[in-house]
Design goal:
Length: 143
């Protein structure tokens, strides 16, 4: 069974919650990643981008906080992404270098760093716009 992950920017948790049923693509700026899960993989990315230790990242109240979760068999949920990750993405420099380091984590073993660099570029653009607009990042998940 495949799990889909779409990252998006929204002005508030309440606004983000409206993406639950149909996903964020028609309502909010969205990056479809399909396989980049929001907890461990993105927590490791935040550590790479900001130098904030992973053990601190996972203690952030916005790390994977469930904004809204469908409690049926649909597996739909919207969860928060930390502001540290948003800010780290927005300020990121050499995405190719970051992608190579990110591809080295266990959870991304076998992924092509060039593909990850493309995704990082899209996520950076999303983060830059979100930061400029005073928005936060979220992840819509569909199992």
């Amino acid at each position: 069974m495949a799990v889909l992950y779409d990252y998006f920017a929204a002005p508030s948790d309440d606004a983000a919650a409206t993406a639950l049923e149909d996903g964020p693509r028609d309502q909010f700026p969205t990056v479809e990643t399909k396989f980049i899960e929001p907890l461990v993989v993105m927590g490791c990315l935040e550590e790479l981008l900001t130098g904030r230790p992973y053990d601190e990242v996972i203690k952030d109240p916005r790390w994977g906080h469930g904004v809204v979760i469908e409690h049926d068999d649909s597996g739909l949920m919207v969860i928060t992404v930390t502001d540290g990750l948003r800010d780290g993405l927005a300020a990121a420099g050499d995405l190719d270098e970051v992608a190579v380091r990110w591809a080295g984590i266990e959870e991304l073993a076998g992924f092509d760093a060039a593909v990850l660099a493309e995704i990082l570029g899209e996520l950076k653009d999303l983060a830059v716009d979100a930061e400029k607009n005073g928005e936060r990042l979220y992840c819509w998940t569909c199992v």
